[in-house]
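Interim report, section 4.2 (structural modelling).
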Amino acid sequence: MSQRVSDEGVRKGMEEIKSGASSRRHGDTLSHIHRVESPPKQTLFKEIKDSVVETFFPDKPLNKFKDQSFFRIFVLALQSFFPIFKWGRDYNLKNFRGDFISGLTIASLCIPQDIAYAKLANLDPQYALCERLGFVLRIQLGDLNTSFVTPLVYAFMGSSRDIAIGPVAVVSLLLGTTLSDEISDIKSHEYLRLAFTATFFAGVIQMALGVLRLGFLIDFVSHAAVVGFMTGSAITIALQQLKGLLGIETFTKKTDIVSVMRSVFSSAHHGWNWETIVIGLSFLVFLLLAKYIVKKNKKLFWVAAISPMISVIVSTFSVYITRADKKGVEIIKHVKKGVNSSSAGEIFFSGKYLGPGIRVGVIAGMVALTEAVAIGRTFAAMKDYPLDGNQEMMAMGAMNIVGSLTSCYVSTGGFSRTAVNNMAGCKTAVSNIVMSMVVLLTLLLITPLFEYTPNAVLASIIIAAVLGLVNIEAIILLWKIDKFDFVACMGALFGVVFINVEIGLLIAVAISFSKILLQVTRPRTAILGKLPGTTAYRNVWQYPKATQIDGMLIVRVDSAIYFSNSNYIKERILRWLSDEETQRITSGLSRIEYLTVEMSPVTDLDTSGIHAFEELYRSLQKRKVQLIMANPGPIVIEKLRASKLTDVIGENNIFPTVADVVSTFVANGEGVL
Amino acid sequence: MSQRVSDEGVRKGMEEIKSGASSRRHGDTLSHIHRVESPPKQTLFKEIKDSVVETFFPDKPLNKFKDQSFFRIFVLALQSFFPIFKWGRDYNLKNFRGDFISGLTIASLCIPQDIAYAKLANLDPQYALCERLGFVLRIQLGDLNTSFVTPLVYAFMGSSRDIAIGPVAVVSLLLGTTLSDEISDIKSHEYLRLAFTATFFAGVIQMALGVLRLGFLIDFVSHAAVVGFMTGSAITIALQQLKGLLGIETFTKKTDIVSVMRSVFSSAHHGWNWETIVIGLSFLVFLLLAKYIVKKNKKLFWVAAISPMISVIVSTFSVYITRADKKGVEIIKHVKKGVNSSSAGEIFFSGKYLGPGIRVGVIAGMVALTEAVAIGRTFAAMKDYPLDGNQEMMAMGAMNIVGSLTSCYVSTGGFSRTAVNNMAGCKTAVSNIVMSMVVLLTLLLITPLFEYTPNAVLASIIIAAVLGLVNIEAIILLWKIDKFDFVACMGALFGVVFINVEIGLLIAVAISFSKILLQVTRPRTAILGKLPGTTAYRNVWQYPKATQIDGMLIVRVDSAIYFSNSNYIKERILRWLSDEETQRITSGLSRIEYLTVEMSPVTDLDTSGIHAFEELYRSLQKRKVQLIMANPGPIVIEKLRASKLTDVIGENNIFPTVADVVSTFVANGEGVL
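Predicted structure of the assembly:
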C-alpha cells in the first residue's frame, strides 16, 4: 500500500509534464473537452440597463434606497447630496480638535498665497480671499474683500475629508491668460465681469458633469499629461514672478518663456530694483529653507505652513519701518473697508462676452476639476475611504456657481494645502470652515498692515508654492515606465512653457486622445507556443522556451474587435500566417494547416468584427487553412451564434481552450521550431 | 509489458481529470512552474520605430524596395504609385474582352444615372457626366458637357479592379445640401465655383490621408453608422424625387421628411401633373421590375443595367412624338454643344468662400472615401486580391483634384455600378476607360434627343438606384448581433431623414466615437472558475459548471489598463471582492484571502495603471487580502519591473498561469460554491 502511494506521488509529478502531450494523443477519446457555452439569455431591456448602469452608475448609488420607507429615502437623499448630514452625526470633540488645528494651519498658509494668486488671475486680492471665507455678505477689508462662500459650500456637499478649498495657482494663471486674451484692459470692470461669468459657467459645467454622471470624462486626460501640464504651468508661473521679484516695471503680457526672458534681460540694466531683489530673494531663500526642513522631517510640516505668513508679517513690518516703498519697492497699497454687493448682476448672460465667458469657464472648470479629483482620489486612497467622483463634481459646481454670485473666481482643491491639511491632522471638511473663520478674523485684525506688504514677497511665496508642482520624480518614472506617457508629458510641458497655457492643455488632451485611438486601431496580437510541461500557451516572444505546434499557428488577438480595428486585425492575422509560413517552409517544416485564433482577450465583437472573421475565413479557405477559434467569451460566442458565423466556421472548430484544439487536431505533434 | 502499457493508457485518461487537483497538492515541489519572463530588451529607438511602423505602415510598403538596384527601385516606385504599370504588363485580349463588355454595360447604366445625380447636387448634368469621361478638354454637348478625367486618372492610379468611378447619389445629395446652405442661389456662377472648390479640397484631403498614411482614420466610422447613413440618405433622396415624379413646381428646399411631405401634400390638389405622374410611375415600375428579375436570376444582370437607358430612350421618344412637354411635363430642355474651358481659375483660393469650400470638401471627401474604400474592400475580399487603402486614397485624391480643375464635382466608387461592373466580368480598371469612351461616343451620337428627356424619368431612375442602398437585411443583422450598432445605425438614419445629411453624418460619427470611448473607459471584467477536469479557468457567468476556489477570488481584466480606465478597473475589482465576500460569508464559506488578477488580456499598462495597482495593493493590504498576478504579458511585466511594483507585490506573487497560482496557494481546495 505504501509502495502504491509513493508510486502515485512520483506519477503525479510526471503527470504534469506529460499531460499536455497525452491529452493531444488521446484528444478525441477524452471526455473532459468542454463545449463553448453561451451565457444565460438576457432580455434586451436588461442588457441595455446593465450597460447603462455600468457606464453611468458603476458605484450603484441607488442601491441604498432599495426597500426603504419614504422618510428614510428622503434622509438618505439629503445625506448623499449633503454628506455633512451623514458624517456630522458622528462628529465629536476629538474630530473638532484635529479640524481646528488643521484649519488654523492652512489659514496661515492660505492668506498670503491667496493674495498672491489673485495677481496671477489679474484680479485684486479680494477675489481670491473671498473664496476662503463664507457668507453671501462680503466684508470689505480695504481691497481684501472677503466672502465665506466656497469652502462653506464645499464643507456641506463635498465627500473628501482632506481637500482644502481655494484658488490655485494653475487655474489662476489659466484664467489670467485666457481672460486677458479677450479683454486686454485688466483693470476694467468688464474684465471683472468676465471673470465672474467664467466662474459661473465653470460651476455650471462641473455641476452638469456631476448631475449627468459624466464624471468619467475627466479620466480622459491622462496622468502623464496632467504631470506635464502642471510642471509647465509651475515653470510659467515662476517665470512670471520675476517681474515682482526683480521689481521690473515694464513687463511682457505674454507668458511664453522666450518673451519673458527677453523682458527680464532687456530690463537688466535699468529696470531692476535692487531693494526689491534683496527682499524677494531673502524671503525666497527663507521659504525654500522651510520647505527643505519639512522634507527632511515630516513632523515639522507646520514650519512650511506658517513660513509664508511669517514672511508677509516680517516683510510688511520691515517696509513699514524703513519706508522702502519710497525707494521703489512696490507694495500692495490701497486697502479699503466695507461690505461688497453681490455679483449676481455682473455675470454676462448675453452679449459678445457670453461666448468667451462660457469657453474660458468650461476650460477652467475642467482643469479645476481634474486637479481636485486627482487630489481627492490620492488622499481617499491613502486613508482608504470612498470618494464619490460625481458628488465631488456637484459640490465643486455648486461652490463655484455660488462663488460667482458672490464675487469669487474659480476655486478648487490645491495640492500643497491639501497635503498640509492632511498632515495637520484634519478629520473632516470642518477644517475648511475653521480656515474661513480664521482668515476672516485675521483680516479684521491685521488688515491695515497689508497696505505695506511688498509685491516681491508675494512673488517669493508663489515661486515657493509652485515649485511643489514640479514633480521631477514623476517625470523620471514616466520615462522609465512608458515612453509614450513621457512624450505626452513633455508635449504638454513644452506647450505651456513655450507657447501658452491653453495650447499646452490642448496638446495634453490631443496626445491623451491619440493614445486611446492608437490603442483601439492597432491592438496587439501575439503568436502563442506551449510552455514545456504545461498545457498553457503563451506569447513566444515573451517566453522563448514556449514551442509552437507543427502544422498549426496560434494567434492571440489582444483586444475587443470593433469597426476601428476589425480590418487591421484580419490583415495582421493573415500577415502572421504568411510570415510564419515562409519561415517554416524555409526551415523545412510542414505547411500550416490550422490557424487557431485564441479569443480569450476578445471581450466583444461588433458587426464589423463578424464581417472581418467572415473575410478571414474565406481567405483562409482559399489558402486551404482551417480556421479554429479558442475560448470565445460570453458576448462573443453569443454574437457568433446570432450571426450564424458559427455555422460557417463549424461549431466543432470552436473550443474552450487552446490545449483542446491542439489535442483534437494535432495527432502526434510535440512542439516544433 | 503490455499490462504496463495498458495501465498507462488508463492512467493518462485519468491524469487529465486529476492534474489540476494534483498540481495544487504538490504545488511547491513541482518543477514545471515557470517564472514570468520579461521579453528580450529592445532599444528605445527600435521600440518607437516598431510602434510607428505598425501604426502607419502595417502593410510594410517598403519591404519590396530592399536590396534592389536603383533602376529597379524606380520601376517599383512607379508601379506602386501607378499600379497600371504593374498589371498592364500582363494585360491581354481575354482581359480586354471582359473589360470591354463590362465597360459597355456600366456606361449604359451610368449615363442616365449621372444626368439624374447632377440634379441632386443642384448642378447641370454636364458636371456629373464629366466625371465619367476623360481628357482635360471638355466637349460641350449642349448642356451635357463631358470630360474624360476622373475614371482615367483612377485607371492609372487605383488598386481596385472592380470599382466603377463616377458621381454617386449620397455625395451628390451631400454636396447639394451643404453648398446650397452657403449659397442659396443655385443657378449662380458662385455656386458652381464653390462646387469646384469643394471638389478640389475633397481631393486634397483624400490625397493627404493617403500620403500621410492616415488611411486608418476612416476606420473610425463604423459599419453600422455607414449602413444607417446610406439608408437614411437613400430615403431622403427618394423623397426629393417626388418633385420630379409628381411634377410639382413649388417644392421645399429642405431635405427633412416633414418639410418634404408637407410640400407634397400641400400641392396635391393643384400642383401635381398627371401626365408626369403616369410617365414617372410607369418607368419606375419598369425599372423595379428589371431589378426584381435580376434578383431572381443573377445572370440577367444586364437587364437591370440597360433598363435606365431604355427608359430614357423610350420616354424621350414618347415625349418628342406626343409633345407632352406642352402639357406641363418638364423636360431637360437647353442642350448646347462646344468645348468647355478648364475650371482651374474658378476655384476659390481666398475670400469668404474658401472656408466653406474647405469644410464641405473635407466632409464630402471623407464620405466619398468611406464609400469607395468599403466597396473596394468588399470586392477585393470577394476576389481575394490585395487592396492598398492608402494607394486607393491617393488615387481618389488625384482624381478629384484633376477633376476639380476640369469642371467635375466629387466622384467616387458607387455601390450598384461597381456590382454591375463586377457581374459583367470586368478584369481591370480598363473597364472604366471603356466606359468613358462609350459615354463620349453615345453622347456625340444621341445628344439632341436628351433635350426631350422628361425629368420624371430621371426621378424614377434615381429612386430605383437608391433603393439599392436601403439594406434591410444588414439592419436586421445589426439588431440581431449588436444592439449598440443598431442604435448607431438608427441614429444616423433618423438624423439624415428628419434633420439633414450633415446632422446625420455627425450623429453617425459621434455614436461611433462614443462606442470607442465606452470601450476604453468601461472595460469588462470577469470572475473565473475552474472548468472541472481541466486546468483552465473560465468566466463563471459563461460556464456555470466552472467552480470558484475556496479562499480565493480570481478576476480577469479584459483590456489594456490606461489612464482612461485605470481608476474604474481598480474600483471594479474592489467591488467584485466586496460582493463576493458578502455572498460567500452568508453562504458560510471562508473569507477570501487571495485575490488573483488574471492579466492575460491586459496587453499594456501605463503609469496610471501602475498607480491603480499600487492603490489596489494598498487597499487589499488593509483588508488583509494578498494580491496575486497571473500571466502578465511582455509589455506589462516589463513596466511592472521598471516601476518596482513587482518588489511591492513580490515577484513570488506573480505567476505565468492561474493554475500555478492555485496550486501554490490553495493547499487542499477543490472548487467551491
